[in-house]
């Protein structure tokens, strides 16, 4: 459920938002058609959820389902098609009004009840057998919607109930970025073209481009400089809110060949259980592109590496102090024989500016 954000100017003083403002900004962003169009059009996302639900039809048929953050209601409709007796589709944003229309258009109003409210404030008439939710944000945890899934699990899910998806894994790998390399080299070419030396702009450009923002971009397979390293696993049946306050892990990899590391790339997978073979929704650069793309974390300076250069360190994901729905990522890393470097990244947001 990755959201859209607007870029802020670097160096702007920020203020902490209260929870009601955070929630308003979050839910208001889902009242426009654009984000829903992007999500539904993401065939990897939508088809995998559809297949994950149908593969679990034996656990859904005749049962009660809770759809957390239902949006347009597409997952609720998949559950109804899979034979659910009752589906509670909970959605706090105004898109819930459109979900009501979509449910009626598909003649599922006897099965699906759309509830326009925040999940933490509702009361259901019964416990549920299944929870389904598309809660993932950029770098998996941006938006903190997993918190609502855990709240729903602890309050509404029957013992032994099913959560779809049931597991999430986080990965990291060093990458080379030829576009950034070209942009940095550009300033050294100006003199040859116009007769004016602008090579001094390179350092300024590096600070602007290789900054502390979490950049969301598609990364190609050719950019990735090592095998992926899995650094964290989240079991949705057992993970706690306390554990989500700091999701961390270590990584260690060896570079494929001679190149320059410009950044680290972070992505995730989520897994749907199945009787025969589990179904995986992957946002890996090695798989077809999704609307989540990948989270790119630029180093302060590019580092040249050779075949088998070791890259290792520790990575932590935790909520921003300014906006608890936004994610921060800290990476402590060592490349080859260099000393340990540390850098903390965050999602930029113009709403955090002091007006």
Helices and strands, in order, run as HHHHEHEHEEHEEHHHEEHEEEEEEE
Shape: elongated
What's the helix count? 11
How far the N terminus sits from the C terminus, by CA atoms, comes to 29 Å
CATH superfamily of the largest domain: Hnrnp arginine n-methyltransferase1
- Secondary-structure class: alpha/beta
Low-confidence stretches: 2-14, 350-355
* CATH uppermost class of the largest domain: Mainly Beta
Task: Kindly describe this structure.
- Its EC number is 2.1.1.319.
- Pfam families: PrmA, PRMT_C.
- The chain is of the alpha/beta class.
- Helix content is 26%, strand content 31%.
- The strands form 3 sheets. Strands 6, 7, 8, 10, 11 and 12 form a 6-stranded antiparallel beta sheet that branches. A 5-stranded parallel beta sheet has the order 3-2-1-4-5, sandwiched between helices. Strands 9-13-14-15 form a 4-stranded antiparallel beta sheet, with no helix packed on it.
- The longest helix is centred in the N-terminal third of the chain and has 12 residues, at 43-54.
- The radius of gyration is 22 Å and the shape is elongated.
- Mean pLDDT is 91; it is low at 2-14 and 350-355.
Annotate the secondary structure layout.
Layout: H1 19-28, H2 33-41, H3 43-54, H4 57-60, E1 64-68, H5 74-81, E2 86-90, H6 95-105, E3 112-115, E4 128-132, H7 146-156, E5 157-164, E6 167-175, H8 178-186, H9 190-194, H10 201-209, E7 215-217, E8 229-235, H11 241-244, E9 247-254, E10 259-272, E11 279-282, E12 294-305, E13 310-319, E14 327-335, E15 341-346
Parallel strand pairs: 1-2, 1-4, 2-3, 4-5
Antiparallel strand pairs: 6-8, 6-10, 7-12, 9-13, 10-11, 10-12, 13-14, 14-15
Helix pairs in contact: 3-5, 8-10
């Amino acid at each position: 459920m990755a959201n859209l954000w607007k870029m802020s100017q670097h160096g702007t003083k920020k203020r902490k938002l209260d929870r009601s403002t955070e929630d308003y900004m979050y839910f208001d962003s889902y009242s426009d058609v654009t984000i829903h169009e992007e999500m539904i059009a993401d065939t990897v996302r939508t088809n995998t959820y559809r297949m994950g639900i149908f593969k679990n039809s034996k656990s859904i048929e005749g049962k009660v389902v809770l759809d957390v953050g239902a949006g347009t209601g597409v997952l609720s409709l998949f559950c109804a098609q899979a034979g659910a007796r009752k589906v509670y589709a909970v959605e706090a944003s105004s898109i819930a009004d459109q979900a009501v229309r979509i449910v009626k258009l598909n003649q599922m109003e006897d099965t699906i009840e759309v509830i326009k409210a925040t999940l933490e404030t509702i009361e259901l008439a019964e416990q549920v057998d299944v929870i389904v939710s598309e809660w993932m944000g950029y770098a998996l945890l941006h938006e903190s919607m997993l918190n609502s899934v855990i709240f729903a699990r602890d309050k509404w899910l029957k013992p032994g109930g099913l959560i779809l998806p049931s597991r999430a894994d986080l990965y990291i790998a060093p990458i080379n970025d030829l576009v950034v390399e070209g942009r940095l080299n550009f300033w050294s070419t100006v003199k040859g073209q116009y007769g004016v030396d602008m090579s001094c702009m390179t350092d300024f450009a590096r600070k602007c481009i290789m900054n502390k923002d979490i950049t969301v971009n598609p990364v190609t397979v050719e950019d990735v400089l090592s095998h992926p390293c899995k650094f964290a696993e989240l079991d949705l049946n057992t993970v706690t809110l306390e554990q989500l306050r700091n999701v961390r892990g270590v990584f260690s990899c060896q570079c494929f060949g001679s190149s320059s590391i410009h950044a680290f790339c972070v992505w995730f997978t989520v897994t749907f259980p199945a009787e025969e073979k589990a179904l995986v929704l992957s946002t890996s650069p090695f798989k077809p592109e999704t609307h989540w793309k990948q989270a790119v974390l630029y180093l302060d300076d590019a580092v040249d590496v050779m075949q088998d250069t070791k890259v290792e360190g520790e990575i932590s994901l935790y909520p921003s102090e300014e906006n608890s729905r936004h994610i921060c990522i800290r990476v402590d890393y060592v490349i080859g024989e260099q000393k340990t470097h540390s850098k903390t990244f965050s999602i930029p947001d113009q709403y955090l500016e002091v007006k």
